[in-house]
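Recall from the previous lesson that a structure prediction takes nothing but the amino acid sequence as input. Here we apply that procedure to Aspartate aminotransferase, cytoplasmic from Neophaeococcomyces mojaviensis. The sequence below is the only information supplied.
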Amino acid sequence: MGSVGATTSATRFQADVCPQAAEDPLFGLMAAYRKDTSDKKVDLGIGAYRDNNAKPWVLPVVKKADDLIRNDPNLNHEYLPIAGLAEFTSASQKLILGPDSPAIQEGRVASFQTVSGTGAVHLGALFLAKFSKQIPTVYFSNPTWVNHNQIFSNVGIPTKTYPYFSAETKMLDFEGMISTIKQAPAGSVILLHPCAHNPTGVDPTQEQWKEIAAVMKERDLFPFLDCAYQGFATGDLAKDNFAIRYFVEQGFELCVCQSFAKNFGLYGQRAGAFHYVVASASDSSEAIKRIASQLAILQRSEISNPPAYGARIASKVLNDPQLFAEWERDLRTMSGRIIEMRKALKAELDKLGTPGTWDHITSQIGMFSFTGLNAQQVQALQEKHHVYMTKNGRISMAGLNTNNIEYFAKAVDDVVRNTK
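The prediction returns the following tokens.
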């Protein structure tokens, strides 16, 4: 008896309709790092905090909250509501919008617990795609977090970019940014990083934020604010959410995506929140109810209900004044170490007389720094010196410590001098 299906394909999804996808570059970089057997290897790719011994750091306040939750005799593992843990979303609102936010006081905010910041961006993008009268174009900074383009493209929203990083100054191209935003059609979505811009580490000043808001209001543009680093950027929670508070105060309708991966170290717990804010109007109460109802349907079809444990940890800290104060100290510990590494790296490069200027290392902020190194230099760093970083020259400052910073600086000096 002949073999059945010998002349047929093993799948209906042939290469012409389902081609091989490229490996995610960041996770591919991580895999290469793990395979490297050198005792000098340095991981500057992944965006996760490391202590001075290059080890993951569980925040002391998170350990306390974890103990309290695990030892609670009433703990269970039942489903959360579709919108998530209520005490978590309400505390998240106050954290990201400010406890005295007029939007909260007037009941103009719909909040949903999400699968970290990625889930928040997806939920917001899906809502805009489904309920906008006309599908808007979303404008990203050039560059932006690599996942932004894929998330919005997957839900059918066209994308464009606005200038952001100046290769010449290695700081913000504010004129290019404003010029492009001024030309965006009314109703366009402008995606903004409120603090610690990923991947450049370059943020607008408060005065520049005010100008951005003024232009967006004049052009009737919709702010989509993606905040993954509140408190991690400067150690000051209120300073890091300035842009969000200002946009709300200026009367914008907007949405905010919030992640607790970095500032709580809850990377694998996937705790996040999405907040939709309607503008103050006579029908705002009715509008936010309708919007919340549709967000609930979208959430139900995507994940049914969000994971509980990470939200419980964050909620325990956010709602307890003593634990909250301890968390702020932990944030200052993390952000402070990053700032010290910036200073130390610049000092090492200056001491070596490395060609070029390196002021941007200390002018940029947050976990990441756009070094200005080109793809060839990045490749040379990996092949000659076992230093792993993304091809665009971005490094995670958290991967540097007092044990490897001199080695890294000498490696950078070598490739800058010898690789073009």
